[in-house]
Amino acid sequence: MSSKASGQLATTGKTPLLAGGNPQIVKGEGDAPVQAYIAAMPGWKRDIGHRLDALIARTVPDLRKAVKWNSPLYGVEGQGWFLGVHCFTKYVKVAFFRGAALHPVPPGASKSQDTRYLDIREGDQLDEAQLIDWVQQASRLPGERM
């Protein structure tokens, strides 16, 4: 499908970007599809993707990664997925699937009773200590089965 025909795709390099600048990556398990997604993140978002991925990998020893629904997912084997990342036009959204159970609760509300979000915009200073704490807490909770 060409980008003109769909009205929703743009292309940077080899990876098409969906509406909002989210990379269109073939779903797959493991680190390789996640790294492909990060490499295709446009502009400043790529640096955020690398920082998030490295932080999550350092924080969770038995980390499991995948790309599903054009979003990297992070989980623990046997516990499901605890976190997802998604690119939007002006920010990168970090979804904590059991975020309502975290302390403090991440700031972004969701239609889902359990999910909470952290939106990262260009120029934002990441509070890495808080993010590490949320990732540690989230990785110990039962995750989503997807």
From TrEMBL:
Keyword flag Transport: no
Q: Which InterPro entries match?
A: YdhG-like (IPR014922)
Q: What keywords sit in the KW lines?
A: Kinase, Transferase
Q: Give the region (Disordered) as residue ranges.
A: 1-24
Q: Which domain of life is it from?
A: Bacteria
Location of the YdhG-like domain: 45-138
A Gene Ontology molecular function term for this protein is:
kinase activity
- Amino acid composition bias (Polar residues), ranges on this chain: 1-14
Please give the name of this protein.
Answer: Histidine kinase
